[in-house]
User: Which sequence fits this backbone?
């Protein structure tokens, strides 16, 4: 049964407190169902007395209540019974409203907690894991699929309990009155719903899997279209994205339509069965009880019970349909949370891992997941503290990958990264990363203020303005912020920093890396979008920082790398030469070839007299 599949997974994705809340909700639901059932049962004595006041002399219970309430006449007793029926009815409805509110409160509270936990666990994943997973799928899981699980699995399960307890108690009460009629009715309705569910069960499972896939493709297409909006503005690309999205969206919509119809179908049949059943019950009781006066109370009781029971059974069936349809989403979220539960959160109150002497790479090899070919092979490298190192080479030589390994983002397949002679083990990586400032090729800026983009992830009340301004001045962006931005550091930058130029985005990225004052600074093409005067100023500042920090630069521009203490030439994932700029010009033919490609004249190598701020040249 689908509930047996869903319930263990739901309990596993709930927090311990969530499980307690769920059990408490189940108890409250049962109490609410008891009160509602009592409200239904109260109709029988009320109608019995209303149709036959003489029953007061024959029924011992009526006599006891009559004497206890000290009533003066049968009319007062009828009024009292009516008030009791109304009070129980209102109490039942009130309890049901409170129970439904508690179900919503519980389920949407869990939506917040589960989505937050899933996002937190994603962020605890190693960088390499993200290289194998589509960011759209991860965002969809956190925002959309968790909500689907909550609304159409957890919330449906809560409502199933509400209706299930009520239906069970009503059926038990009817069985006590007349077992034959009650069991025949229950059997008939159960057969109808069971038949429909068995017919559509496998179809719901398949369509639930397809819905999960189609929803992911919808998200992916929209994100790709918006992310490439400049290209997508061309009619050819725009029509392509619309065509792709149209296909996925139509498929998703048709699946949702079918799931809704499957949930509604039995209702049309059971309505007819309920009406026919009521007519049969009326005829049966009129014949069996020998008169209307004795049959009417039971007929009214069955009608009131049917008014509550039939919709409850229909909604219970809909709950099962929805739970089965969204079971793939539950299984996916459960799988993601179970995998993440095995991770150790190494970011809690972690201290910086400082180093006093050297960063050492010993026989480091690395291959990306799903590939057998090493992109980094047998790297032997030593980086003394407070020196500058440049990584150069053609595109695809492995420069960024090597920088990621040094930063602790990627773990070597073979070999080791050592800090002051000690291995950079997994439990030390978080501390090391707190001591590394990384400026990637593509700076990601928040749709937020300049201040929050530089003090990335720091709460507003703990932002250090002195550190903020120091970092901005070093990145040569402070004057621009105060002079050209309307609200200074409180100016919004728009999505991905769309309101400022590419060079300004890079400078904010550099300021972000410098804000926490790390001992190691990695610049991956960090000055490639800057004009020459700004590059000159930043490189001058970085050269000054080199006396206090260890700086690793990946660059194509000659003026950037020439100031570095050591230059490492990489070719096809290997370190083929290293030394100062002059030493490599004299000893490495490959480096000289790169310089020739970067210089327009044929005698470039012999006449290399590069200075910071010279015309823009790039190593390819």
Assistant:
């Amino acid at each position: 049964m689908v509930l047996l599949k869903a319930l263990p997974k739901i309990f596993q994705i709930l927090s311990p407190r969530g499980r307690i809340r769920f059990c408490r909700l189940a108890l409250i639901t049962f109490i609410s169902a008891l009160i509602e059932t009592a409200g239904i049962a109260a109709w029988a004595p009320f109608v019995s007395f209303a149709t036959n006041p003489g029953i007061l002399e024959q029924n011992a219970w009526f006599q006891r209540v009559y004497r206890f309430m000290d009533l003066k006449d049968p009319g007062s007793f009828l009024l009292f019974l009516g008030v009791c029926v109304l009070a129980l009815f209102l109490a039942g409805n009130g309890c049901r409203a409170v129970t439904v509110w508690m179900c919503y409160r519980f389920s949407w509270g869990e939506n917040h907690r589960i989505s937050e936990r899933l996002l937190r666990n994603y962020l605890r994943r190693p960088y390499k894991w993200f290289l194998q997973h589509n960011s759209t799928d991860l965002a969809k899981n956190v925002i959309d699929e968790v909500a689907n699980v909550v609304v159409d699995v957890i919330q449906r399960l809560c409502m199933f309990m509400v209706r299930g307890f009520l239906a069970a108690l009503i059926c038990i009460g009817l069985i006590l009155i007349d077992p034959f009629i009650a069991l025949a009715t229950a059997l008939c309705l159960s057969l109808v719903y069971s038949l429909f569910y068995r017919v559509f069960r496998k179809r719901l499972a398949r369509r639930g899997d397809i819905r999960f896939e189609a929803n992911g493709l919808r998200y992916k297409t929209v994100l790709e279209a918006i992310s490439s909006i400049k290209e997508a503005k061309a009619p050819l690309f725009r029509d392509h994205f619309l065509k792709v999205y149209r296909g996925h969206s139509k498929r998703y919509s048709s699946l949702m339509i079918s799931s809704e119809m499957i949930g509604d179908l039995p209702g049309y049949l059971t309505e007819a069965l309920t009406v026919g059943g009521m007519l049969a019950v009326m005829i049966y009781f009129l014949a069996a009880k020998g008169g209307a006066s004795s049959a009417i109370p039971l007929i009214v009781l069955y009608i009131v019970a049917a008014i509550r029971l039939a919709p409850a059974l229909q909604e219970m069936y809909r709950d099962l349909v929805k739970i089965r349809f969204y079971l793939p989403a539950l299984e996916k979220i459960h799988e993601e949370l179970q995998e993440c539960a095995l991770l150790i959160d190494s970011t809690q109150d972690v201290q910086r891992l400082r180093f006093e002497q050297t960063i050492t790479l010993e026989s480091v090899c690395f291959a990306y997941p799903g590939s057998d070919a090493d992109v980094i092979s047998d790297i032997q490298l030593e980086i003394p503290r407070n020196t500058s190192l440049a990584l150069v080479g053609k595109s695809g030589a492995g420069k960024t990958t090597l920088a990621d390994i040094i930063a602790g983002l990627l773990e070597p397949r073979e070999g080791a990264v050592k800090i002051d002679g000690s291995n950079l083990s997994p439990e030390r990586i978080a501390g090391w990363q707190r001591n590394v400032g990384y400026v990637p090729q593509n700076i990601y800026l928040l749709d937020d203020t300049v201040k929050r983009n530089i003090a990335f992830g720091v709460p507003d009340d703990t932002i250090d303005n002195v550190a903020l301004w120091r970092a901005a001045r070093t990145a040569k962006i402070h004057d621009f912020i105060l002079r050209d931005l309307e609200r200074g550091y409180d100016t919004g930058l728009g999505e991905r920093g769309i309101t400022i130029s590419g060079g300004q985005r890079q400078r904010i990225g550099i300021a972000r890396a410098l804000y926490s004052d790390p001992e190691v600074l990695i610049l991956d093409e960090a000055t490639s979008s800057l004009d020459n005067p700004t590059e000159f100023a930043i490189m001058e500042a970085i050269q000054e920082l080199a006396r206090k920090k260890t700086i690793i630069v990946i660059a194509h521009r000659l003026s950037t790398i020439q100031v570095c203490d050591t230059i490492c030439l990489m070719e096809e994932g290997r370190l083929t030469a290293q030394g100062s700029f002059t030493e490599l010009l004299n000893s490495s033919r490959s480096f000289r070839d790169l310089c020739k490609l970067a210089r327009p004249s044929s005698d470039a190598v012999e006449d290399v007299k590069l200075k910071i701020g010279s015309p823009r040249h790039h190593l390819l």
User: Anything to note?
Assistant: Residues 350-435+554-620 form a domain with the Rossmann fold fold (CATH 3.40.50.300).
